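name: query_chain
kind: protein
chains: 1
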Amino acid sequence: MKRISGLLAALTLTGCATVREAPPAAPAPVPVPVAVAPAPTPLIAPAPEVPVTVAGLTPEKYADLFDRIRAGYQLPDVDSPSVEREFRWYANNPEYLDRVFGRAAPYLFHIVGEIEARQMPLEIALLPVVESAFEPYAYSRARASGLWQFIPPTGSRFGLKQDWWYDGRRDVIESTRAALDYLQFLYSEFDDWLLAVAAYNCGEANVERAVRANLAAGQPTDFFSISARLPRETRAYVPKLLAMARLFLSPQDYDIEFSALPNEPYFVSVDTLGQIDMKLAADLAGISYEELYTLNPAFHRWATDPAGPHHLLVPADTADLFRESVRQLTADERMRVTHHRVESGDTVAEIARKYHTQTHVIRELNDLPATAKLVVGDDLRVPSGVTELPAKVQLAALRVDRGTRARGGVHVVRRGDTLSAIARRNRMNVRTLAALNNMGVNDTLRAGQRLVVSKTAGDASPARSSPARRSGSGSGGSSYTVRRGDTLWDIAKRFGVSVSQIVAWNGLAGNSIRPGQKLTVKKTPG
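structure:
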């Protein structure tokens, strides 16, 4: 039997995310008439012979969270070739499911509780399998981000803050709230969960047009009757969810076993009483730097957002110790800062350069308005930490910095310039500079070429990051063809390299990859 472990602590990047159309700003729900006649197809499959609920058992009484999900099923099991096609793929790829549910383990208990509280179908807890493969750093070509894959306008529409420090689309708690708000809004519009799920993928306007077209033609308006009028991705999107739900319901029938996932909270939200350094927070919580970012992927800098939210998710068994440790910190200890006494001629920009940070970080640490002048003798707090962010966090920061290029600048290549020399001159990692300009680190430059340079990109820490291990340009390389279910993290681990190296070698703008794509992967010297 193929065993799927729900407790595998996988830290991965993925290109399996889907995207949605940005809907207009919060329109009032307009009911759309649904079926005009009962559809002869698709057929509803018979209910499973093995019951998945126990009479009188309340949600908290289930030992296995997966059984709790199965007990809350509400969607129909539709007998359709498109569902069968997706089902066969899932059933034949248990390794993929192992990775996905390993990543899901920290988040599922919270998601399930939120869905139950709204009395929504618990199959929706499986929707991030389709959206992001449960990778909180998933990012699509349409700039959709997070477990629930919100694009920026839709995220803003549903109250997800997005700034230099923080992206609420990746916040586990906030993005789940926003996703369920959106799905409930769509259900109120269509009165059909499958149409609501379809609209979540492609936007309500597309589904409304398809429904109206079928009504005008005197045809049924259920999802499978209108699917031919929907985008190709959406035609597969709903069947993927139904296929995943079917396999998850009775995995033993298909020689697959999901290891039990304890029906208990994995994390607790703890008030940090203000901005806090992420490395320090990880140390206080007794967990790795990477795990803290996995639980709090919305933060993509060295510290939490000075404007909030002022809380962090930490494992439930360390929450009390973390809470007490945070209470004992002074303001300087919380941020790992040192002090600079202002001298004659000092400017915020010059001080930022001296401490390898950015002017707005200096101003935020000291509550200095943009127009405020420095006074000789003033004591300024400046960052002192030197910590390299995990690769996936660097990529998240890089995307923000690419969208705010005014904080950086443009370098016009001169004769004799090299990428490494330009990177050194701008205090950047050469791979970051290459990725920022969709280049490989060994690409040839030409005089007059314009390169975007940004001291905030990639390093993402106000203090200079420790240099990443350099890959030898003469170390030889090979071509790798991306397979379905692959992530950049999987490929990097397989070849003993870093995600950022693969991004740089292939000139990738982000972490999106697609099946069949050819990647250059070089072996690093031991």
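note: The radius of gyration is 25 Å.
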